[in-house]
Myb-related protein 305-like
Amino acid sequence: MDKKPCNSSQDAEVRKGPWTMEEDLILINYIANHGEGVWNSLAKAAGLKRTGKSCRLRWLNYLRPDVRRGNITPEEQLLIMELHAKWGNRWSKIAKHLPGRTDNEIKNYWRTRIQKHIRQTDQNMNHGQSSEMMIDQQASTSHVSSSADPMETYSPPSYQVKMESDHPSAGTALPVLADSNDSYWSMEDLWSMQLLNGD
DNA sequence: AACAGAGCCAACCGCCGAGGT
DNA sequence: AACCTCGGCGGTTGGCTCTGT
């Protein structure tokens, strides 16, 4: 560990926390022009004060054009459960079988929806069959948990910059974009911006 | 109308393995 | 052969939003 303390001056420059739209644009733009790879160098070359890891994660989980978010379909849910039964928490492996889905999303989905349902099921049937079996059964009947599709109404990838346009009450948006009700940035917006910026 | 609790999601952290020097 | 760097993975956490009281 502790590979040298590093210059604290450099550390101070590393940004953390939610990505801003500007950062996203920079990253998208850079990758569009130079491609992915060598994330640490990429982060520096693009002028982002982020770690390579952070850039990679942001790109893979959110910015990639082919990434699909929300609306986990019953089929996908079924597949997730089947693959999880087969491989366990090998999220990246599972994600490979779900085009457009990221390991992070699947992982979150599993933890929040399915695992919760397992617990509830376990509680309901004090000792009975194992939860895994329950899932399997549900899966095979393709009737998954009652919360089977809570995401039907999932609003499209509202931009993470807390545009809050969805929730006017949350008035703590970032200054740049907060004042418009229309400031609802979708990935499409970002990509079209990127295209406009071209380079 | 205000407050509290629960749920959800994005991002970070630490570890491990692969590749390069 | 050993060391170092980078990328990838899984687990965990923090913050925001929604729902119920």
